[in-house]
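Q: How would the C-alpha cells look for this protein?
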Amino acid sequence: MTTQDAAPPATGSDPTRAADHGIVVRGVTRAFGTVQALAGVDIDAPPGAVTALVGPNGSGKTTLLLVLAGLLTPDGGEVRVAGHDPVTEGPAARARTGWMPDAFGTWDSLTAREVLTTFADAYRLDRGVSRRRVDELLATVHLAEYADRPASVLSRGQKQRLGLARALVHDPQVLLLDEPASGLDPRSRVDLRLLLRRLADDGRAVLVSSHVLTELEEMCDDAVFLSRGRTVVPDAAPGARADGRRTFHVRALSLPALVAWLDAAGAAWRPDEPWTTPPTSAGGVLVDVAGDEGAAALIRDAVAAGVPLTSVAPAVGALERAYLTLEEDRR
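A: Here is the predicted structure in C-alpha cell form.
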C-alpha cells in the first residue's frame, strides 16, 4: 500500500488515466462561513483501484466526498470525476458516479425493489435492463428475501446494503463511499470488502472513507490522508521512515526464554502488557525490526535458538501507524 503526497500527485498513479475514468482533485478549497473545511486537497484515485480516504473527525472527508458527488460546489480548485467537472458537467459526472452517504435515507413506504427501481428510472435505464439489474443487485447485497418488503422493516445494516445497491444501480465508473461498513455485521463487512475489490478489479475507481482502518487496509491499494482540510503525508506513512523499521508483537510460551534470547542477541524490546518482574509465564514483548525481512529473520533465529514462539505480528497496521502520527488536535 502506498500513500499520496499533496504535491506532486500520488506516486504510482496515472493522472491521465485517472482523469479519463477515475478521480482527479487539484487544490480544492471549500469554506462554510469562517470555517475552512477544505484548504487545498490534491487526489488521484485511478480506475482499477480502491483508494482509502483517511483522517480524523473534522478533517474534511465528507465535505470532499460531497464535492465529488456534485452536491457541494468548491470555492476553488479543479475536480474531475470520470473525466467530467461535477459543477459545469453535472449530469455527465453524476451519470458515471455512484454515491453512498454514511446514512442512507429511504422512503419507508416503498419496498427495497421499488427503491432501486425508482433510482434506475431516475438514471433513465431501460425498464427491461433495470428489472434485471435490480434483481442482480438485491442478490448481491443479500436482500433478495426482503425485495418486496417495505424499507421500514429493514435494520440499519440492511439499509446500508440497500444504499450500496442504490449507488451501483446505474453501473457507475466511479464509486464514492462514506463509512459504508457502518451498521454492518461481520459477515456483511467481509462481503463488502470482497465486493469492492471485485468492482475495482473490473476497472472502476473506488474511493472509501472509513474509520475502520484494519478493514480499509485489507481492501485498499492506496491511501489519501486529510488533516485540517489538506492532503498530508504522515510521518509513519509506508516508506516514510528511512530505516524501514516496524514494531512487532512477539509472543512465546516462555516469556523468560524469549526475553533472555532477545537480551543475548542485543535486540531492543519492551513489554507490551502488564507482567510480573521477573516474568514467569507465557507472554509477549514489542520488538522493533527492519520491516518484514527483519521479522522473518527474527522468527528464523528464535526457532533456531529453541525459543517457543507462538506468534509474531505487526503491532498496528500501516494505515493505523500513519493515522496515529497525524499532527492534529482532537476536535
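The two ends are 28 Å apart (CA to CA).

The first helix runs from residue 15 to 21.

Upvote if useful.
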